[in-house]
Amino acid sequence: xxxxxxxxxxxxxxxxxxxxxxxxxxxxxxxxxxxxxxxxxxxxxxxxxxxxxxxxxxxxxxxxxxxxxxxxxxxxxxxxxxxxxxxxxxxxxxxxxxxxxxxxxxxxxxxxxxxxxxxxxxxxxxxxxxxxxxxxxxxxxxxxxxxxxxxxxxxxxxxxxxxxxxxxxxxxxxxxxxxxxxxxxxxxxxxxxxxxxxxxxxxxxxxxxxxxxxxxxxxxxxxxxxxxxxxxxxxxxxxxxxxxxxxxxxxxxxxxxxxxxxxxxxxxxxxxxxxxxxxxxxxxxxxxxxxxxxxxxxxxxxxxxxxxxxxxxxxxxxxxxxxxxxxxxxxxxxxxxxxxxxxxxxxxxxxxxxxxxxxxxxxxxxxxxxxxxxxxxxxxxxxxxxxxxxxxxxxxxxxxxxxxxxxxxxxxxxxxxxxxxxxxxxxxxxxxxxxxxxxxxxxxxxxxxxxxxxxxxxxxxxxxxxxxxxxxxxxxxxxxxxxxxxxxxxxxxxxxxxxxxxxxxxxxxxxxxxxxxxxxxxxxxxxxxxxxxxxxxxxxxxxxxxxxxxxxxxxxxxxxxxxxxxxxxxxxxxxxx
Length: 577
Prior knowledge:
5-stranded antiparallel β-sheet; 8-stranded mixed β-sheet; 48% helix; alpha/beta; LuxR C-terminal-related transcriptional regulator; AB_hydrolase; AB_hydrolase_fold; PAS
C-alpha cells in the first residue's frame, strides 16, 4: 500500500481545496483514482483512508486553522471598533465575522447569512446583487451605499459596502447605520435622569431614526402622547432639541458598556420551542403548519434537509398538517448527548418522549437521506404509532462493489472514510467547514453540485437555495456545532444494518430523484427487493433536491398517509413517475 498510496499528493489537494473550493474536485478525483488503483474491497480501503492519512490531514488543517484564525482576528479587531452593526461577508452573503451590534440588531453571527436580516423582501435581492458586484469587482466599483427598508415598516437602514483586500480570498465589509441599544442603558437613564420605561422607549426609537408618527405606530400610543413623553425626556435630560437628544443617546451607546448588563437567554425564534427529556436535557423542536393538524415528524437529516421552500411550508397549514422538526442531541440548540450513549438509540428514545409529551398517538415520519435508519428503529420500537415512513433520497450502507461505484466521487470519499476509517471524519468535516466559512455556503454548493445537472438546476432557484442553506447553515455553523457528534453519526449511518431492520409494520415509501449521486436509485431498488413490503416513487429528471422541487407531489403522498380510509389495507406499490 505504501507504494500505491501517494497521500502527500492528497494532502496537497486538500490544502488547495480549502483555499479554493472550486478545486475540491481535484482532491476527490485524486483520491478516487488512487482508491481504484489500490482496490475497492474493504481491506485496501481501510488502509488507504487509515491513520497515516488522518495524521497528515490533521497537520494540514492545523496550518489552515491558524491562517483562518489570523484572518478572523483581523476582521474582529476591525469590527470591534465600530459602533454600528457591522459584519464581514462573502460574495454570497455568508457572515464571516460580525460585531455585537450586528448580533443584537440583526441576529447575524459567523456562519449566518444576510437572508436572516429583517429587511423588506424586495430589498434583500438588491443587497445580495450589490454585494456580489463589489466582491467580484464586476462593475469596477470597490464600494457603495444602499438605502434599505426594514420588513413591515418604512424605517430606513443605510449600508456601506466596501471590498476588503488581503487574506485567502476577497471579502466585503458591511457597516450599517443601526446602533445597538445596550440593556444597561435603560437602567442608567432611570438612575441618572429618572426616565420611565415608556420615556426610555421613546428615546431609543428616536435615536434609531424614528419619527413621532412612527414611534406612535410602533408603540400603539397616540401621537399626542408620544409628543408629551418626548417633551418630558428633553426636560429630564437637559437637552434642548431632538438632535441634541440623539447625540446624547449615541454617547450613551458608546460609553455605557454592554457587558454591564446581565446576558439574557436569547428569545425563542419563530416556530421554536424546547422540550425537557427525563434526564434533564433540552431538545429543540421546530413546528410548522396547523398546530391542531395531523402530525408529521420531519427528521433533520445529517445534511440539513429539513427545510423546504417557503411556499411548501405555507402549504402545511392549508393541508392541515402539523410538521414537527426535532433536532437530535448535540445538533443546533439541543443539548449534547450523555457520554457513552449510542446516538441512534438516544434519538429513538427522545422521539418517543417527544410524542408522549405532545400527546401524539400516531404520526407520519419523513426521513431525508440517511435518517431512514433512525425512522426504522423507531418503527420497530413503537410499531403501532407510525402511520407511515417516507424516506427521501435515502442513503444506505454499501453492500456491494457495484453500489460503491454508483456513487459520485465525493460520496465515495465520505462513505469510505465513514465505513473504514472514521477517525478521518472530524478532520474532513473541519476542513470542509473551514472552506465554506471562507467562501460562503452557496458558492461552495454551486461548485459541488455542478456535476449533477438536476441539482444544479434546482439550486439555481433562489427559494430552494435559500431553504437548503438555512437548513445546512443552522446544522453546521451554529455556536454549538460539534464535529465529534457529526462524525459519530456519519460513522454509525454507514455500518451494516441488522438483517430485520427494514421489516416494520407500517408502510415504507422511498422517494428518489434518479440523478441523485449521493443516493443512487439502483441501490434504493435493491433495498426494496430485500424488503418486499416497501414501495418506490421516483422522478428520472430530479436529484438530491427532489423534495424541494416536487414538494407538492411529496405532500400529496404524506397527506394521504396521514388519514388512510378506515378498514382498508395499505395501498399497493405506486408506479414510478
